[in-house]
Task: structure prediction
Amino acid sequence: RRDLISNLADVDEIMEDLYLHAEMEEPTAADDETTTTTTANNASVYRSCHVLSNISTEQIRSSLRRMALSRMVMPTMCGAALRGVGVEPVLDCVAEYLPCPLDRLPPQLQLLGNPQHGKKEPQKQKKVEEDNNAIALGHSLHPSTLAYVFKVLHMKGRGGSGDGRVAFARVYSGILKARDSVRVISPNSLSGASNGDGDNTNDKNKKRKFPVSKIGGMLELSGGQFNNLPEGSCKSGDVCALVGLKGVVTGDTLLLTSAAASLDDTPHKGKKKSAKSNRKNKGNNSAHHKQYADGVHLAGLASPLPVLTLRLEASSSSEQARLSSALALLVVEDPSLVVEETPTTTHISGLGELHVEIVLDRLRREYGLEVRTGTPRVTYRETVLLNDGDDEVESDGMVVYDRTVGGVQLQGAVRLRLSRPPTLEGDCIPPEDPVVTLSPETCEYFSIDPKSASSSIDDDESLEQKYPPALRALLSGARGSLKRGRLGPHPLANLECHILEVDSELASSDASFVGAMRAAAANAVTTLLESLVNEGRMVVLEPKMNVEISVPTGKVGDVLSDLTGRRGMVDDVAMAEEGGGGDHVKSMVRAEVPLIEILGYANSLRSLTGGEGAFSAEYKGHAPQDGL
Result:
């Protein structure tokens, strides 16, 4: 206990003051020796120690919570969940030391029809909330109902939506009740609403009509058992399982259909406020009413890009229809699973070999489908290899495109720059799709406000619909060319394409001007990439996995030799302590290995270790391909 207090005093000023004050009253070494020899039990020792007797348990708990909230300490508990030992203390510590929703800012919300809303820095947002003296929408104490669907399962006999769909939701604010009608807002449908290439006249998300579903019932989550909620309601901060919601997927936001039912203008209890303060609160409530009526949504779920693709084939044409239906349900449950179907083939893509094997096992176990599989194919990417001190490459002046196609002249010139996004650090990171941005000169050429294009156009697709068709064609041409690599059939990644300057001899009113901008942008990107290939500055990115191998000590050398042959880089070898067991004592090997090299590694490891080895692999990121 004294060591715990001493360690807390090193990071907590309040505990440090208490500790130093108690130490000043401690007896001298001689007195302490006399006290130790005369004490008869632990209670008297406790009373004789001023640090232990003057610092109460509540003060220690308060210090632990303060430091846990500030991320200065991490409370650690010992227990065994399998044997049911120490479970209750862990739950008590979660409630006592870890932050509750009231200890943090409300979640960032996206206001439909205003893509810039909700992108303020947390400090700035907090200052605005304090100035307005109002509880922000999404806060636990806000009366409006806001819920987030964090998982979707299909449970036969439970869901009332026909396919057994059960949505697990967390209520951020307000109260969600059974039989409530809710608006289902999906961020994924919003981002895919525009393709940046067509002439979509419906350019405002707030005019979109989102599906409305009625909650058929609520289930309580309790140790794997799903019982009906006795009160039929879920309050702020709780989680529940909802049945009867059709079309809901992971990452959706749920709002009540009536904005008036979500907020009222009743004055706050407490001290009587001035007329000016009441007018301010009324204005804030009106603003929240409008936001809720227009629609808001949370950020949703960002799934990582797949790294392994497998071809599936059903045993018959009748089984193919069942396979398509089963895969559609699995995609709803697992957003990281990608399914591509053509009239002749079906491909599934996942985050690794284990991920794909679990999908195949579920198809066989839950849906009774036996499918034939092809050879796994790893997802490669390409990027530009930047030299030390050179974080960008630029085209050699204006790249001119001038051709006549079908009697129509297409003429345009584009100057651009490729660079690495500043948010990406490290050599082995998950790949991100290329980003296209516009310079102020390019914005002025198309007569648009440069401020509206200062951020990535890809992040605000709804803004693109406000741009002229020629500018949308310019962005489409650049993106299309960035999807095709030059070293192989691999898309580019981890690049930012900044269009610096645009020019054309054609007038903006010419019918061929839109096509000329698309062709000029694609030609500029292709020309720059080909020059980088000739300079040897293009590189292929391959997925790397963090591998942990449990192997008998006597077989560590064989495993390390095998990993070296698989282009693996060994990070650590934890040898077992000497003792009984001989060669059967297990050691741990940690390494970084390309995914292509460990496909089917389980059989090879069993052969090397006589069936005693086991391993686990986790996707780390894409890194430049080497060792070939």
Summary: The chain has 18 helices and 27 strands. The CA atoms of residues 19 and 51 lie 6 Å apart. The mean pLDDT is 79.
